[in-house]
Design goal:
This protein is α/β, with parallel strands linked by helices. Helices cover 52% and strands 16% of the residues. Strand 17 and strand 18 form a beta hairpin.
């Protein structure tokens, strides 16, 4: 099954192309004429159209988000720089402010052109070929004009417009505003385009200029300008523009980049200048405030006698701490002296040791105490080994007594000194404590004033620093916002018009246009035109196709000459034979159509006669009892027939006539027409007649009226084996065929086949293609070709 799919696909593809060929190929002369006209138009267009080149450049935008931040040195110098966002810069490059500057600087508002060719069909830019260009003193005040023809004098000193001459390089008043003509700096003498200048002198080439409003030209420039990021992760911007002159396109891009940078520098310069002015104004104000605060502080210090409160506070606190330490030390010393005095006065034992006086900083007292302690120690030692009256011991006793008196006297003296010192220290400590207690209030008052002074001083110092930075770096060292990565260059060949594309379009568009016109014609026609239309609207098979010709009302199959129409009826005969299973078992075939004029009688008569040529006896019944036409087609006289039989006036033998031109073809004509002919079909005699005829011949071909106006078919079709439905090309509407299935099903008519009749020749020519209308069978041309070759061999 998998291998069968490509085969089916190839078959569908082949059928599709066959359908295209059948639908459009007959009109090949029409397509050929369109192609010739299109190619001629393309040739003229390429001759007249102005070649357009594409110029491009790349710039790098400083965008910190994409890794393009300033270096540290650049950040130091570029104090007023702001970080750029590439998406915003894309719009700034296309802004009116930038483009207006470019239009003004390059004088794009006054383009100059050359005109040549038949009736001035060829118009080219005079960017390089015009000796002069036009400049307006106020581009915003010019009067727009489309074409102003002018001539340049041979010495290029004057420009003539009509009968008025204007000097070159001088401002003049013109009907379009104050302008001047200046020499073209881009004028190329001796170039290939200089030929146009020479022709202009002789009148073969004309010069003219246009004046365009700044806004309109900026809009036109923005429409042709393309700005885009090189990639989403990059801060590189590609700038492209299309222009007939490559050098002008490059110059425009360069001017756009310069105007963009100058515009950014200008804005940053304005910010820097405004900042400096603001700083200067603030410095004056802050300096006045600072002087006022300094004066207030000076007056306060003079009034309170305070130079530096914090230092004075520290000194007072240090003094108080020192006094406290001194007081403590003095107190300790007094306690020691009191203890020594108490010991000396209360103890009578000569051997007891006097308390230590190490804390007393008096060498005399210390020496006496040490002397006394030594004597007492020696006394205590000798008393243990020596008698009380020992002279040495007595001498030591006397020395102890004397020394105690000296020590006691020294202690008293030292106590007196310490008590005086203690009183002085207390006085000093009280004074310092009073001063220290008064300092917080004064300090709070001074802090309020000092805080204001410090704040003002900080502001003043900050403003001085910023003024120096702004004056030294920002104004003089502002850097551009972009860097050129690739300079502006142009394509070597024009990008428009593209000759290959124009050539392809010149071939494709006429084919599409022709196909569209043919399809439109078919779409607007609601009638059956193709066999595929029938197959799309109904499920019944199309078993035959009959072409249109001059033989519409004749028995063409009776002719002995070999013709295409005869071959088509032979094919129909073969198809009818194969309708039964096994083939050849059909006895009765009824033929009808949707409306009158579709050729059902023509098909019935010729099919019946064609079947007789296969050794069959056929009876042709003219059962269209309303508008019969087969009798005249066969060349027979009208007489009694089916209506007479149904009314009982004649017998079946009497109305069954043998045709004079074919003994195997029998004809039963309609008979005398009656108004209630349809009612006669219901009296039961038609079944008897059909049975009788079926016993006499091999096949019955019954011609019935159309089903839309008359319903006789629904009474006869159930008595027959098959129904042939004739559809005429470009005659029947598609709506009639849509309901065919429903009508046949509702009347239980099952065996139905379709004959496509009256197929018209399509296209242009004697043997135009497309008789088949569905499967690509060009029967007529194939038949004629074969017949001609056959005759040529016989001769």
């Amino acid at each position: 099954m998998k291998k069968a799919q490509p085969i089916a696909a190839d078959a569908d593809s082949e059928k599709f192309f066959q359908q295209l060929a059948i639908k459009y190929l007959p009109y090949w002369p029409f397509f050929a004429a369109l192609i010739i006209l299109s190619l001629a138009s393309a040739y003229i267009y390429l001759k007249v159209a102005t070649p357009v080149y594409e110029s491009s450049a790349s710039i790098l935008i400083k965008d910190e988000k994409k890794g393009q931040d300033d270096s540290k040195m650049e950040e130091l110098l570029n104090l007023f720089d702001t970080h750029k966002v590439v998406e915003n810069e894309l719009e700034i490059l296309r802004s009116n402010e930038v483009l207006n500057e470019v239009v003004t600087q390059m004088r794009l508002y006054a383009p100059v052109y050359t005109e040549s060719g038949w009736h001035g069909m060829i118009s080219r830019s005079g960017y390089h070929t015009s000796p002069v260009i036009v400049e307006a003193s106020d581009p915003h005040a010019i009067t727009p004009v489309k074409k102003v023809y002018f001539q340049v004098s041979s010495d290029m000193s004057k420009v003539n417009i009509g009968e008025t001459s204007y000097p070159v390089a001088q401002w003049v008043t013109s009907p379009w505003g104050t302008i001047r003509f200046i020499k073209n700096p881009s004028y190329r003498i001796g170039s290939s385009t200089d030929k146009d200048s020479a022709e202009a002198m002789t009148g073969d080439v004309k010069y003219f200029f246009s004046l365009i409003g700044i806004t309109n030209e900026s809009d036109a420039l923005a429409a042709s300008l393309v700005t885009a990021q090189a990639s989403k992760q990059s801060s590189v911007i590609n700038i492209k523009i299309k222009d007939p002159v490559p050098d002008r396109g490059e110059a425009v891009i360069t001017s756009i980049v310069n105007a963009y940078n100058l515009n950014a520098i200008k804005k940053k310069s304005e910010v820097a200048a405004n900042t400096l002015n603001f700083i200067e104004d603030r410095l004056k104000s802050v300096k006045f405030q600072l002087d006022s605060v300094e004066s207030s502080i000076q007056k306060y210090r003079n009034r309170t006698g305070i130079v530096d409160i914090s230092e004075q506070s520290k000194l007072y606190l240090q003094s108080m701490a020192t006094n406290d330490q001194q007081k403590t030390k003095t107190k300790i010393q007094l306690n020691i002296l009191n203890e020594v005095q108490h010991d000396l006065e209360s103890k009578t034992d000569l051997g007891s040791i006097v308390p230590s006086t190490t804390e007393i900083n008096d060498p005399t007292l210390t020496g006496l105490v040490n002397k006394l302690n030594n004597a007492q120690t020696e006394y205590s030692r000798l008393r243990k080994t020596t008698a009380e009256n020992n002279p040495i011991l007595s001498s030591i006793q006397n020395e102890i007594t004397k020394t105690k008196a000296d020590v006691l006297e020294a202690v008293k003296s030292q106590k007196s000194n310490l008590e005086s010192s203690q009183a002085y220290i207390s006085q000093i400590s009280n004074r310092d404590s009073a001063m220290a207690n008064a300092i917080p209030q004064k300090e709070r008052e001074l802090v309020e004033v000092s805080r204001q002074r410090n704040t003002t001083a900080d502001i003043y110092a900050f403003l001085l620093q910023k003024r120096e930075e702004a004056a030294s770096y920002s104004v003089s060292s502002i850097l551009p916002d972009s860097y050129i990565v690739d300079k502006a260059t142009s394509t070597p060949a024009p990008v428009s018009p593209k000759k290959s594309l124009i050539a392809i379009l010149a071939l494709v568009l006429p084919l599409m246009l022709g196909a569209a016109l043919i399809s439109l014609k078919s779409a607007l026609n609601n009638k059956i035109l193709y066999r595929t239309d029938i197959e799309a609207l109904t499920n019944y098979p199309v078993i035959g196709e009959i072409i249109q010709g001059k033989f519409e009302n004749s028995l063409v199959t009776a002719s002995k000459e070999r013709s295409f129409i005869v071959e088509q009826f032979r094919l129909l005969r073969s198809a009818v034979k194969n309708l039964s299973n096994p083939p050849g078992r059909l006895k009765r075939i009824v033929i009808t159509s949707s409306v009158e004029g579709e050729g059902k009688s023509f098909v019935a008569a010729n099919l019946a006669n064609s079947i007789t040529k296969s050794n069959k006896k056929v009876a042709l019944l003219e059962l269209d009892l309303h508008q019969p036409s087969i009798c005249e087609m066969l060349g027979l006289k009208r007489g009694k027939g089916i209506t007479d039989y149904l009314m009982g006036k004649v017998t079946a033998e009497e109305i069954m006539l043998q045709t004079p031109f074919n003994p195997d073809l029998f004809f039963v004509q309609a008979g005398n027409l009656e108004e209630d002919a349809s009612e006669l079909l219901l009296n039961g005699k038609i079944e008897v007649l059909l049975d009788y005829l079926s016993g006499k011949v091999d096949m019955l071909i019954i011609d019935m009226p159309p089903i839309n106006p008359i319903t006789d078919l629904y009474a006869i079709a159930p008595l027959c084996d098959y129904t042939l439905y004739v559809i005429r090309h470009d005659k029947v509407r598609k709506n009639n065929i849509k309901v065919l299935n429903e009508n046949m099903d509702s009347h239980k008519i099952k065996n139905v086949a379709i004959v496509f009749n009256g197929i018209k020749k399509r296209g242009i020519g004697q043997y135009s293609y497309g008789y088949g209308y569905g499967y690509g069978n060009d029967y007529k041309s194939s038949y004629d070709t074969y017949g001609k070759s056959k005759k040529k061999k016989i001769v």
